[in-house]
Every structure is written in C-alpha cells, then in structure tokens.
Design goal:
single chain, 4 helices, alpha+beta, four-stranded antiparallel β-sheet, 98 residues
C-alpha cells in the first residue's frame, strides 16, 4: 500500500528561496531511494513549510526516513530547519484521486 511522509517545520535560518535552492542534494538523494514516487514542498501563508513525499509503500517510507537521518542530516537544507518545531509522520494512503 502506498504511503505519504508528512513533515511540517519552520526555518531556523535563511529565506524560502535559499531553502528551496539548498534542496537539490535532498531531491537527488530521494530519487535514488527504493520506493520513491514524488516530493512536494509547500509554504504556508504563515511562513511554515509542508513537505509531502509519496512512497510506494509504508516500509519504503520508514526505511528512507531512517536512512536520511544518517546520510543527509548535515546537508545545507537540513541544517536550515528549526528542529524544535519539526513534526514528521507517515500515513498509508486509503484513497487517491488523479
């Protein structure tokens, strides 16, 4: 069953465009992960971000999430995020409409 990874956060430093630009290595890393389908990064009116990653399975989402903390934690984009407000969850998709 497909799954979504949902991450909400604020930036600790930098602006939105700097953060988006700093995500190129994260995007490249995600594309190499088994089960990756797509990623969507959105900014709310209050300045906070929502990062939604679509995975082929819940297991793939969990495996990549753990691996990311080991391999990408020191990337420029990750160091721009305020860890105090970061929330991450995974959910199995029950309905999808294209």
């Amino acid at each position: 069953m497909a799954a979504l990874e949902l991450v909400t956060f604020r930036l600790a430093r930098g602006d939105a465009q700097q953060f988006v630009d700093a995500n190129a290595p994260i995007n490249d890393w995600l594309k190499r992960q088994p089960g990756f389908v797509s990623r969507h990064l959105a900014q709310r009116d209050d300045g906070s971000f929502i990062d939604i990653v679509y995975w082929q399975s819940h297991a793939a989402a969990l495996a990549a999430s753990a691996k990311m903390m080991e391999e990408m934690a020191q990337s420029e984009a990750m160091t721009m995020i305020d860890p105090m407000g970061l929330e991450m969850s995974h959910a199995s998709i029950r309905l999808s409409v294209d």
